[in-house]
Amino acid sequence: MKRSINSIVLLIISAVFIVSAFIAVHVEASECCQPILGQYTPQYTGTRWIQASLDLPSSIAFCGSTLEVYPGYNGYLTMYLQKKTSGSWSNVTSWSGSTAGSNGVSLDEFYANLIVGTTYRVRAVGMVYQNGVFVEQVSAISPEKTR
User: Fold this and answer.
1) Which of 127, 128, 20, 111 lies closest to 64, judged by CA?
2) Are residues 74 and 132 in the same domain?
3) What range does the domain containing 90 cover?
4) pLDDT (tens place) for every residue of the chain, 147 residues total
């Protein structure tokens, strides 16, 4: 009888350790990454979301970017329209904005002097602060498009 009680106690302790290990791995994975459209993106400290987009329907580039921060944080967003020359990226122009009293900033701009046959992209860079102290830099890049 004593042997069966010891076996049951050992079985319960083993089950608790296995379940604890599973929960720890699951929590760690959910804290570091969030699935978005089938891809995993990092979970930031003060940043809720950053994105960049580019549309080239004609000879005009429509550029967009968004930075959302959690309450208690401030963010500054700079959006760059970039072109590819000889395999490297250079800035064509840029726009900036800040969350200033809200939790998000969106930039929607256009640029009209595109060069035919050139590849473009939008790069969004966010600088996030809490109480005036720098917390993190985040960035997003749109898919490349050729005019």
Assistant:
1) 111
2) yes
3) 44-146
4) 556 665 665 556 555 444 444 333 333 333 444 444 444 456 799 999 999 999 999 889 999 999 999 999 999 999 999 999 999 999 999 999 999 889 999 999 999 989 999 999 999 999 999 999 999 999 999 999 998
